[in-house]
Amino acid sequence: MDLKTSHNSPVFVDPLPSLALPMTYTTPTSFPSSGLYLNTPKKKPLPSKIEEVRAAGWLDLMLASSPPRKRQSKDFLPHDVQADDLDLRYRNWMVNYPSALGSFEAITELARGKKLALFLDYDGTLSPIVDNPANAVMSDEMRAAVRHVASLFPTAIISGRSRDKVFDFVKLTELYYAGSHGMDIMGPIRKSESNGHHVECVRSTDSEGKEVNLFQPASEFLPMIAEVFENLSESIKDIEGARMEDNKFCVSVHYRNVAPHDYETVHQRVTAVLKDYPCLRLTHGRKVNIMHSHQALYQIIC
Ligand SMILES: O=P(O)(O)OC[C@H]1O[C@H](O[C@H]2O[C@H](CO)[C@@H](O)[C@H](O)[C@H]2O)[C@H](O)[C@@H](O)[C@@H]1O
User: Fold this and answer.
1) What distance in angstroms lies between residue 131's CA and the mean position of ligand 1's atoms?
2) Domains contained in the chain, CATH given
3) What is the spatial distance between Cα 12 and Cα 162, in angstroms, rounded to a whole number?
4) Which residue's alpha carbon is nearest to atom 14 within ligand 1?
5) What function does the entry list (predicted)?
6) Residue-wise pLDDT tens digits, 224-256
């Protein structure tokens, strides 16, 4: 795979964000303090009015939660969106999110002589963003590239998905996998682990029976997460396009296929269920709300 020229970053294959967005919108780079981490104390009333949802930044996040698509055929543009408008949005987006490939030489220079490890996201990085998460298949070309890089550096994939799901797509046993936003980490045992492994790691075996390190710091929350999954599934079932995803240590509510005028309803239903689970956190991804037990740890031990 030619990293410099031929690979169209899957980051840019998202659908056009809502037309309600201003021309120079900026996808938030940091989360609003009151909105994204809903460590909801039981007695504190949750936002009930649309204005409060908007004020907390949630609605704006939901509307702006995917980058604009770079090359979108005019045929598929909504009737009131001009190609120029789309280009402008894309260029504005690129100001905040420049491609690392444009600075490849500089990055290579900075890395020289350093001990490197590679941390990769899965969705939108190794696979294209698609409407149905079950279809986010990784290409053989991408798999070969990841296999190659993993032969050079310790390589980890960090994902909001369950670890099993990511592994089922990637199928490379030589990698570290951090699923459920870091709540479920598995990795090869390295020869350098002479002084034993991390205190919370256990030795386990992977799908091929190979010994691995396993780190699952949120196991005690599994019954609660399962309950939240059931309650949320029931709560959003009448919202057209809303989709639940069970990611084992966290729960995702997808609204990629929900009409923008129903985003507020999605948010209200999610927060209403969560008010009974004050120890759970609510975070936000691309057209997805995520419930998990801890702040993500991403504790990869190489
Ligand atoms: O932290 P991440 O690894 O980026 O996980 C965030 C979510 O990724 C997946 O959803 C995203 O990709 C889907 C397939 O392309 C897309 O349909 C969805 O809109 C995106 O948000 C995954 O399915 C979720 O469980 C993760 O929470």
Assistant:
1) 10
2) 2-24+44-105 (no CATH), 115-218 (3.40.50.1000), 221-293 (3.30.70.1020)
3) 24
4) 133
5) Removes the phosphate from trehalose 6-phosphate to produce free trehalose. Trehalose accumulation in plant may improve abiotic stress tolerance.
6) 999 999 999 999 999 999 999 999 999 999 999
